[in-house]
Structures are given as structure tokens and as C-alpha cells.
Structure to design on (84 residues):
């Protein structure tokens, strides 16, 4: 995102409004919310991507339900159109 002023065009090198730690803070929330699931090595979380790897579909569905519950508990949500 660039913006133009009378002195020329500028592109910020940091996030506006002091939000430079937002991605790291969000990653910490995800890690803390899903820690025990991540430790089972069936769940991986990177920023806003959560990957679930299981052998059985029933187990997969149970883990996904638990992840959604924990996200709701932390006032986070999932956009269904971005899910597979």
C-alpha cells in the first residue's frame, strides 16, 4: 500500500498505528489456544492457517469441531468460503 503526498509517493515499511506485532501476537493466541492439539502432531497452525492431519474421518471431524469451539472461546471465527 503506497500513498501520495505533495512531496512524492511513499510506501510504509512498518504497519500503521503501532500494529507491528499483530502477526506475532495472533500466532501466540493460536499457539496457546491449540497447544495440546498441536502437541499431538495432528494439528499445525501458522498465523491464520490451521491444518488438521488424521487417518480417520471421524477423528478429523472431532478435531475440527474442537478447533472451532476453541476459536469461538477466544472470539475468533472462521470464514467458511476460505475453508476446505
Amino acid at each position: 500500500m503506497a500513498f501520495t503526498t505533495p512531496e512524492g509517493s511513499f510506501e510504509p515499511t512498518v504497519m500503521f498505528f503501532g500494529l507491528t506485532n499483530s502477526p506475532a501476537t495472533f500466532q501466540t493466541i493460536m499457539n496457546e489456544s491449540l497447544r495440546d492439539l498441536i502437541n499431538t502432531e495432528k494439528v499445525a497452525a501458522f498465523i491464520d492457517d490451521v491444518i488438521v492431519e488424521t487417518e480417520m474421518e471421524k477423528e478429523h471431524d472431532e478435531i475440527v469441531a474442537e478447533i472451532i469451539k476453541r476459536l469461538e472461546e477466544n472470539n475468533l471465527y472462521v470464514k467458511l468460503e476460505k475453508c476446505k
